[in-house]
Design goal:
Distance between the termini: 20 Å
Bound molecules: adenosine monophosphate
Order of helices and strands: HEEHHEHEEEEHEHE
Oligomer: single chain
């Protein structure tokens, strides 16, 4: 994608101050997804550097990651596997607790959702501190599948998440950054 196309995508992201709590600048991708051309461009941009046939499954993080993952999976010709908050997925699950600024959270995946050695693309809407994506990446590791790449629509570089993931050797990237 060229700089012009990326700035058109960025223009569709709306910033909502003080949501969901005071001091947070919420980066809202819904106007982009509601625009047929913008959604298509976002999906295309997120996978443009992945070699054809290099991904077997798209894993998406609840909940906004799901909205991107459906389009991406169709474009790649593979299926979608959700990573969800605790207690949402039926049957046997694998789970992983991770630290937040205050307290802990947990993500879960269905135990049989990925096959060993399947090549996985992990997708979410936004990376901030990287805690959520790191937990999802480790969960994928527990299944025996292979994490090939992690893609985000939006990066908040000031919060350091992208650097945190790259330091661990994962191939990760985002289309748009907000300083
Ligand atoms: P983190 O674990 O700190 O990287 O946070 C990433 C997760 O929190 C993603 O699933 C995002 O959807 C959400 N998130 C964090 N900060 C924001 C923000 N400023 N605007 C929109 N979503 C956010």
């Amino acid at each position: 994608m060229n700089a012009q196309q990326l700035s058109e995508l960025k223009a569709h992201i709306r910033t909502i101050p003080d949501f969901p709590s005071p001091g947070i600048q919420f980066r809202d991708m819904m106007p982009l997804l509601a625009d047929a051309h913008g959604y298509g461009q976002a999906v295309a941009g997120l996978i443009e550097d992945l070699a054809p046939g290099s991904i077997d499954a798209v894993v998406a993080i609840e909940a906004r990651g799901f909205l991107l993952a459906g389009g991406i999976a169709r474009a790649l010709g593979c299926g979608v596997v959700p990573v969800r908050k605790p207690g949402k997925l039926p049957g046997f699950t694998l789970g992983l607790n991770y630290a937040l600024e205050y307290g802990t959270d947990r993500l879960e995946i269905q135990q049989d959702a990925l096959k060993p050695d399947e090549r996985v693309l992990l997708v979410d809407d936004l990376i901030a501190t990287g805690g959520t994506a790191e937990a999802a990446a480790r969960l994928i590791g527990q299944t025996g599948a292979r994490l090939e790449a992690i893609r985000f629509l939006i990066d908040l570089p000031a919060l350091g998440g992208m650097t945190r993931l790259k330091t661990q050797g994962w191939d990760c990237a985002a289309l748009i950054a907000f300083d």
